[in-house]
Each structure stands twice: as structure tokens, then as C-alpha cells.
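Q: How would the C-alpha cells look for this protein?
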Amino acid sequence: MQATNLAPGVVAADGGAAHCVFFGLDPEAVIGDFDSLSDDVRRAIPAAKLHQITEQETTDFDKALRSMDAPLVVGIGFGGARVDHHLAAFNTLVRQADRRCVLLGGEDVVFAAPPELTLRVAAGTRVSLFPMARVTGRSEGLLWPIDGLVLAPDGRVGTSNTANGDVWLRMEAPGMLVILPRDCLAEAVRALLAVDAPWPAL
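A: Here is the predicted structure in C-alpha cell form.
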């Protein structure tokens, strides 16, 4: 599997444990409020691996991400067909921008931009930037540079930009999502692991 080749340890968020059981994966932990964890799946996983967090203020993705100790997380299945699930996952990415996390979707990979990032991508690669807050920054290697622009979710966004080759980004504040084609997963992981330090924890 593309994700486990890069991040071999498996942690399930609540009902995601059912997919682990189905595919024969042995999760190191299951984390969530367990409102979607069936009794059958619960019985199939050792009790010591079940970590229930009952508060309802955050999503299971948020609970799992903040509870893991890993250099980088590749998240699968946090979007699906529901737009509200996508938005909640993106909210978690920017709220926990101190964590290195890449979400893997059907066609895209998405992650929160760190303070500075270099992407080794081919010319013509789609590089979309979507602000979840008011953000400014600088860029090199983009067809349409972001220097001097104010990007905001209710204002100007940076979707469907294109790389001229390697791309360098510097953000002045957290809140920017980077969206790349799915085949850029390995590069996204490499680039994030090369970052000296992500944003400070909120």
C-alpha cells in the first residue's frame, strides 16, 4: 500500500479500525470516542490497544493526531464523499500545524504548509494553495507567485497554480494548505521531514 510503504505503523481513528480488520492490518492503537466502533471490531482488537477519548468537541482525526508520537503521519479515509468531513479534516490540519501530517485522498495529497518548504516537483505539476486563515508569504518556482498577495478563505485563494520546476514556499503565519496530485505523496513526505521545525503548538 502506498501509505504504509512510507509510514509503516498503523493507528486507527475510531471506526477506521474496521478497515484495519478487513485488510488484515494490525493497528498499534485505536483512538477515538468509539461512537462508530462496532462490538465485533472491538472484540477483534486487544483491549490494551483501545484508547477511548470521550469528549465531543473534536473529531476522531483530531483525537488521533494529537495523541500520536510519530515524526510524520499519513492520514487515509478522512474525507470520503462528505464535504463536511473534508472541511473538518482540513480544520484539524491547520489547528495542529505543529504536527507533520499528510492527508491522502483519491486524487490529491493535502498538508498544512510549514514556515518554509521546498518541493522537488516536475514542471507542470499542479500546486494549489488554499488559505484557511489570512496568510501572506513568498514563493519561487510557481507560475503565479504569491509575493505581495494576501490570501484568505473569504478572499483571494491560490488554487490551480503550476510549478515551473522545484517550488520554494515561505509562509508568514500558519493556516495555508498545500494540495498536490496524489503521485506527489512521497515528495510531500520527504519535504515535510526535511523541515527544521513546523509551527509552534497552539
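The two ends are 33 Å apart (CA to CA).

The helical segments are 2-6, 17-23, 39-44, 60-67, 83-95, 185-193.

Upvote if useful.
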